[in-house]
Amino acid sequence: MNFELTEEHKMIRDAARDFAQTELLPGVIERDENQTFPTEQIKKLGELGFMGMMVSPKYGGAGMDTISYILAMEEISKVDASCSVVMSVNNSLVCWGLETFGNEEQKEKYLKPLASGEMIGAFCLSEPEAGSDATSQQTTAIDKGDHYLLNGTKNWITNGSSASVYLVIAQTDLEKGHKGINAFIIEKDMHGFVVGAKENKLGIRGSDTHSLMFTDVKVPKENRIGEDGFGFKFAMKTLSGGRIGIAAQALGIASGAYELALKYSKERKAFGTEICNHQAIAFKLADMITEITAARHLVMKCAWDKDQGNNYDVSSAMAKLYASKVAMEQTVEAVQIHGGNGFVKEYHVERLMRDAKITQIYEGTSEIQKIVISRSVIKG
Ligand code: CAA
Predict the structure, then answer these.
(1) Rounded to whole angstroms, how far apart are CA atoms 291 and 322?
(2) pLDDT given at position 1
(3) How far, in Å, CA of 244 to CA of 289, rounded?
């Protein structure tokens, strides 16, 4: 067992930290306030290789491991979780899904521009009536011989309008249940595809979350990913890795809030001394760093599982469940340590608190993670 990061890991973490401080911190409050998508910042992340971190260099990626990816995700999320969710969906859902299950033509055509950050991708599973209950897909993709005809609506889609490539899950054969579901690659300019309203959200307000409408979209057969009926397994396998990215995002939000609270508590004075000298605050700091360290170990462990080729369905569910709980609880504490200033936007912690909530919801709610974990332990 070795808890040390390699020199390369440290370099990646430091590069992500520098980027977050110099490129993301200026303007993060305004982007949140105005719901502005971080277009320039994402372009620069692509140039640094952060939009296709784990993709093989053969397809234009950086060829890094999952540990590197979560170190970068943590640093970016400390400052701007709106930016890190764009990065996470592109890396662990879209690029990983295409590299692992796409064919050579699909990788050449779609993975290369996605991995370089030239294009952004979206992952489209959720529907108005199919959120947690993901097998209940109402979007249909009817086999018409040389193409599928796609009809339906997707909801709460991250990168909804900024994406150019969409991985869309749809029901081809209702009688086969989840075995009749397929995954398709949809291009933004396909006839009959419309990007709907943008959601006005509590947190991660800089990311663009939209509904998507498909009306008689002709999808070429070659845009189906994997064998006929593989779509649900594609979604589940891809989401297992996606949850590592969101766990790292939650860890970053929590540790970003903790670092701000620690700094503030050493500067702010009350009753004649810095507030960190009051046990009420000191004990909060002790609890925060303990919880965050525990979350980091779970996140690192599941990233390591993935890099070792171990099954990570359960370890990623545990990491996301725990890290998102820590993010929610510890950002509330960070606001409390800041007192009245914590309620004010310029101190950043109120934004981190709002951003934390989504980590308990997307890529499987905390309750879904408990289903995954409990089924596994009961099955043995
Ligand atoms: N890997 C491979 N196969 C898997 C799997 C996995 N991790 N998990 C389930 N499966 C397979 C099962 O083996 C089963 O196949 P067989 O019948 O051949 O054995 C099939 O999938 C159906 O599984 P279940 O019977 O367990 O299905 P279920 O209806 O009970 O649901 C669930 C399982 C875990 C609850 C699943 O529906 C789920 O994960 N729901 C949450 C969906 C989710 O995470 N949505 C997030 C949206 S994406 C997003 O948020 C992205 C974003 O923009 C940020």
Answers:
(1) 9
(2) 84
(3) 20
